[in-house]
Amino acid sequence: MTSHDTGTATHAEAAALSFSGLSSSRIEVADEGTAAELFLQRGWTDGLPIVAPTPERVAAYVAAVGREPGEVLGEVPEQNRSITVEKLAVNAVMAGCRPEYMSLLVATVRALSRKPFNLHSTTVSGATAPLLVVSGPVVAKVGLNSGFSVFGPGHHANATIGRAVRLLLQNVCGGLPGVIDKATFGHPGKFSYCIAESQTHNPWDALHADRGVPSDSSAVTVFSGEAPIFARNDWSDQPEPILATIADAMLPSHFTGGGVVVVLGPLHAAAMARAGLLKADVRQGLFERARRSLSELRRAGRLADEPEPGDDTTYRTVVPTPDDILVVVAGGHLYGYSAVVPSWVGGHESMAVTEGLDDEESARCVLEPSAQRQPEMS
Q1: DSSP state of 281
Q2: What are 31-53's pLDDT values in tens digits?
């Protein structure tokens, strides 16, 4: 696409003017406003205004990661489509990203394209979207928010990185609402769903270190998640009641073998750490408490088969194993809140994937926490 760009080119844009190899079709437009209206009419936006992806801007974003524009970062076999560096750059420009976000976006696309994640899980009838959890030095480098209103507005990096993923899923992967994406309701995370893990308030190792990426690196973890469910307990500073509160918030999950992201607020994380709990202890404590009897699940319409003797004393856990609970520390540090992000209804068919940014060998990390993908019965 070409538009009349009257602004002064940055050094990156000037250097990129000689960058060749862009293959996207070009559309002549009069100005930025015309481009935004045209993209809206053609269904290439999320309903909000976009930044016009001029060749100069796209070339600068491609140059920012030092890759060929035609390099394939991921495949969408169901739609017979490929995600190239150039197409990622086009959608990153449209979303309002800065060029320095591109390395993080490249890692995100690689993670989303991994088979265990199952990109199709973000287009089903339930309300799921790719949740991005960024951890490591890149959080401070690009200005990602890990504190107050971590799921909310007001921070450029979170908002535009998450939005770039949404535009990419729609424009490149074919996930058009009502066409391929058949979400019954959707949720606001389908606009942008990107948070960062706190380095200041986290008393334990970073999420990516738990999942095999070197602790001094940066990484992004992608998770097919529903909207957050909030768990408030600001009247206790002891682990037991806090764990009980969070476990109760996990119970609306689907009990279909998927994982859960638990975002511990800093006050809750500090209470656990003061009591000597490690992250593994938190996962185990939540795993043991987040369960329901088969009779309860049937009464709630969560199971379709007929009642059987012993249902009152047979329990199903929300997740198959403690390692299927991803513990992240984020959010404001003044109040006793945590949050739970359930997985999609297909649960065991989509797993969280962690991808590193820095070292190519250590970056390609996909962990399946358990071979048994069905919830535990006891």
Answers
A1: H
A2: 999 999 999 999 999 999 999 99
Number of neighbouring beta carbons within 10 Å of residue 111: 27
**pLDDT tens, position by position, 340-350:** 999 987 777 78
Residue type, 162: G
Q: Cα 171 to chain center, whole Å? A: 18
Q: What is the H or E stretch that residue 83 is in?
A: strand 81-84
- Tracing tokens 């049937």 back to the chain, one arrives at 298
Domain ranges for the chain:
227-342
pLDDT confidence bin for 368, thresholds 50/70/90: very low
Distance CA(371)–CA(344), nearest Å, equals: 19
Helix, strand, or coil (residue 210):
helix
Measure the CA–CA gap between 243 and 280, rounded to whole angstroms: 13
For residue 319, what are its two tokens? 């997740």
pLDDT digits (tens, 9 = 90+) for 315-338: 888 999 999 999 999 999 999 999
φ/ψ of 38, rounded to 5, equals -65, -45
**CB 261, CB 280: distance < 8 Å:** no
Q: Can you state the percent helix, strand and coil of the chain, rounding each to 5? A: 35, 15, 45
Average pLDDT over residues 77-84: 85
**Distance between CA 126 and CA 106 in Å, rounded?**
27
- Burial status of residue 44 (CB atoms within 10 A of its CB: 0-12, 13-18, 19 or more): middle
Beta-strand relationship, 219-225 and 337-342: unpaired
CA–CA dist 332, 154 (Å, integer): 14
Q: How confident is the model at residue 376 (pLDDT cuts 50, 70, 90)?
A: low
CA distances for 168 relative to 44, 72, 165, 257, angstroms: 10, 14, 5, 28
For the packed helices 102-113 and 55-64, what is the interaxial angle rounded to 10 degrees?
80
